Amino acid sequence: MPLVNVPVSSGIKHAISVLDYDNNLCVIAKKYIVDKKNSLIFNSFFNEQINLDKIFNLSQGGHDSVRDYLPFYLEEKYSKSKNVVIFFDDVMANPKDYIVLDIGINSLSLNGEFYRYIYSNDLESDLLRKLIWCVSVSWHFVCVVIDSKEVLPDSMEKMITDSNFEGCDILEVIVGAFDGEGYLHISHE
């Protein structure tokens, strides 16, 4: 399953489009992309090598992208990392979902916005698969991976509320792509 570089201009355009949603996590992710745009790398996984120069719209499906790898990728890449927290935008959740949907994941509800987050020491592919299934819609998937640098868990709500991960480093932003058939990974060099 090759990791394919996405042209920066296409990556920025698509990411900003997905993040053009009025909630705090999207504001944080969009600010990261705008502030770091000159040093960002955009990648996506595909079943076979593909020439992304011919794909101008990362929102369209049908490009043989890989969808089911994300739980394994997150577990493999971040489970041994200390202080990593992964946030997911649960854009379609409502107060009933927030209370009823308990899959063992930390949740935040802020002024009608719903987020799920998981610490690196809790990363396990089956749990991540359930989480990703719960928060995914074809038009909006946002995941932000941070190095919390010893920030206390009770500070997570304040960081989201303030739209600021001050004192933390964003390691990666992952947004949905290809009409829900894949993901665009955004990280800095």
Using only C-alpha atoms, the radius of gyration works out to: 16 Å
Strand order of the largest sheet: 1-2-8-7-6-3-5-4
According to DSSP, the number of beta strands is 8
Please indicate the count of domains: 1
User: What is the structural class?
Assistant: alpha+beta
Strand content: 25-35%
- Number of alpha- plus pi-helical segments: 6
Strand and helix order: EHHEHEHEEHEHEE
Name the overall outline. globular
Amino-to-carboxy terminus distance: 22 Å
* Low-confidence blocks of residues: none
Major sheet characteristics: 8 strands, antiparallel
What's the helical proportion of residues? 25-40%
Task: Explain the layout of strands and helices.
Elements: E1 3-5, H1 8-18, H2 24-36, E2 40-45, H3 70-78, E3 84-89, H4 95-100, E4 106-110, E5 113-119, H5 125-135, E6 142-147, H6 156-161, E7 169-177, E8 182-188
Antiparallel strand pairs: 1-2, 2-8, 3-5, 3-6, 4-5, 6-7, 7-8
Task: Please give a handful of descriptors for the protein shown.
about 190 residues; alpha+beta; 8-stranded antiparallel β-sheet; 6 helices; about 30% helix; about 25% strand
Describe the structure.
- The protein is of the alpha+beta class and 189 residues long.
- The protein has one domain (3-188).
- Helices cover 30% and strands 26% of the residues.
- An eight-stranded antiparallel β-sheet has the order 1-2-8-7-6-3-5-4, sandwiched between helices.
- It is globular.
- The model has no long low-confidence stretch (mean pLDDT 82).
